[in-house]
Design brief:
The protein is of the alpha+beta class. Helices cover 25% and strands 32% of the residues. It has a single domain, classed as Rieske [2Fe-2S] iron-sulphur domain (Rieske Iron-sulfur Protein). It contains 4 helices and 12 strands. The protein binds FE2/S2 (inorganic) cluster (FES).
Amino acid sequence: MGKAFGAVAGVGAIASLVAMKRTWDPLPSVKAAGFTMVDLTAAEPNVLAVEKWRGKPVFILKKTPEMVAAQNEEQTARDIIVGDDHFLVCIGLCTHLGCIPAYRPDKHDFKCACHGGEFDASGIDTLLPPPSPMEIPPFKVDGTTLVLGEAGPEYEKMKSSGITV
Ligand code: FES
């Protein structure tokens, strides 16, 4: 009985590790001299991809059409739009004390395990203690490639309207 339970628990643990690994898989990308080029065509809707840029995790989330339709103006203003697709791109660090929030695909939000803070799918803080939205890194859109580390016109527009610092 004990052995059977152990085997079942082991299978469960492996399954969740596989799921976690899949969740954290980055998209196809190339790194060069402080820039990270990410191929957005490989992104799956409502599946969080995590890239690494200058030692920090960067969340990339392709939103589903339903998620986009339900958004308000503030949320849409933070989207990176490529063709018909909307993406969240932000530094995946909680703005409270820097933990890495986890994406909850069923709720379309992020939960920070450290002190319970929450962010919506646009990276906007919705439950304290995080004091502000997750930061958007400098980016440029080149066709369907996202270039992290280079400030393009879309980023400059966000910066001038106070969406990111
Ligand atoms: Fe995220 Fe405190 S570090 S809630």
